[in-house]
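HOLO CASE FILE
Compound: magnesium ion
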Amino acid sequence: MSRIRLLPEIVASQVAAGEVVERPASVVKELIENSVDAGARKIDILIRRGGISLVRVIDDGCGLDRDDALLSLERHATSKIRSAADLHAITTLGFRGEALPSIASVSRFRLTTREADAAAGTEIIVNGGKIDIVRDGGEAPGTQVEVRSLFYNLPARRKFLRSENTESRNIEHQLHLQAIGHPEIAFTFVRDDRLVFQLPRAANLHDRIRDLHGNKLLERLLPLTSAGLGKIDIGGLIGQAGVSRQTRAQQLVFVNGRAIESPVVTAGLREGYHTALMKGQFPVTFLFLNLNPASVDVNVHPAKREVRFRDPTGVREAVVNSIRRALEGGRGDWQEKFRAPNVSQSSALPIGRTRPIEAQPAFAQQTIETLPRFAPSGFEGPRKLPDTTLAQERIDKKIPQQFQIIGVLNKLYVLMENADGLVLVDQHAAHERILFEELRRRMEDQGVLSQKLLLPQTFDLSLRDAEWVERNMSILQKMGIGIEGFGPNTFKIDCLPAFLKTSDPVSFMQRVVDDLKSASNSSSPLRLGEETIAKTVCRHAVKANDPLRYLEVEKLIQDLLGCDLPYCCPHGRPTMIQISLAELEKKFGRRSAIQT
Ligand code: ADP
Ligand code: MG
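Model generated. Tokens follow.
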């Protein structure tokens, strides 16, 4: 008895739909991609009830004549490729010829379409894969697809849908991807009869991001370039260090205009951001990779979400390099912000300018309130600026008036004034960043200064810790930690890096080892990179609540601004926070007072 049977066409389409149409957002994606491929300049999307009850996509693209419109609903019917050879270099978003028949087989489907010069268009109504009506129709040139009651004939699939809100959010995410991927196309999005956004055609990505996300995000983005490295062209914008999200939702990656998810690119992003990103956080990226279509295979995933690169290593390296360059280039912007405030207009007379620097007591010994800054005007007559002392001159030369230090709060936060308002610097985080970069630089030139201990010390470690130290001994030594074996599980330290001022080297080592063990969690505690170890050493090198003197604070800020990535510590926490004058004015209610 023969048991194998060809599936009826409709069932075959429903099987394919299982892969292509997972949820309403996949319908939206496929329809928009078709509109983009059709050369649309404007795409309107309307959904109801999370797209479950209705998805409608209208475009002003090339449209279809009646024969093609009917053909487009057949499986494996496509205008985009003709032969297997075309698969090697795909330049359109679609190519599988599966989306329309798949969607039509699991919904109540209506297609109306008209070519620009045609006298009349075509309307086709399909229910659950069966063509019910074909007639003249179609208003403006272009194509309109309506998908109602998704999965009405597959109750099992319908049950897998999430709440309407969740499905709406998925759709909105999809729309963001498409809108960012195609700034040259105007998009409107209406959800349950409410206009969610209306994006005009934009000249470039920059404008599109502003229209979609506002200036606030835009101001915190840095441009990416590939500087003609190899065959991979990289462009787009990425968040500067410290700009991150708890999810991947704003980590957008496009390959030849197609939004994709790629472990290779994700790895490159993580490596490129490296210390600029807190653990567990994700960067904000609008990354565009353009490469020869022949060197990327998009025919990997039914929903075309993943791609395979012919040269994954090259792609990863290109991503890492461009991210690093952008982040380091972004430094200039920040430094630019450290222009001095306009002193004559400033209400706070900075201490550095009212007295010779040498006369300043350690900040930490005073509270901010006691610092002599707010001389009530009229009490003492006009203030006399002090004679220019040598110290003053030296400082002016060192820091070209980039900032004014106001004081230190709680022995930890340096308060500064710049042109935008108030800047708070976390002294510890800053110190860690400085030490880390210094250490890394010196390790690269094999030149970490180390200092002999007066008395070498020995200490014992647990078997596991001892094993760890053994394995990482050469890295520790490279960092200027003079450590060697001294019997089973016993070690001797006889020197420490010069920057490390500790009176108790043994407990220092113990803390570093403990911290590294917990940082590396269980995965592979024995193999830690140089960088991780350097970060940890720096963290423990910074002493808690160290009261700094004025000159030390100033040096700290200066060193920080000289770092490659000054705005976050090696663990990705911010080193500085800007509170703008506008924000202060808002908090004090001055904004509205000025307006009235
Ligand atoms: P694919 O996009 O992979 O070719 P689809 O099933 O999505 O497969 O679409 C089938 C064909 O229908 C496309 O190749 C295209 O020629 C045509 N088509 C679909 N949507 C549109 C549209 N919005 N405008 C013009 N033509 C379209
Ligand atoms: Mg398609």
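CASE NOTES: The chain has four domains: 9-203, 220-329, 336-439+539-594, 449-525. The mean pLDDT is 81.
CLOSED: yes
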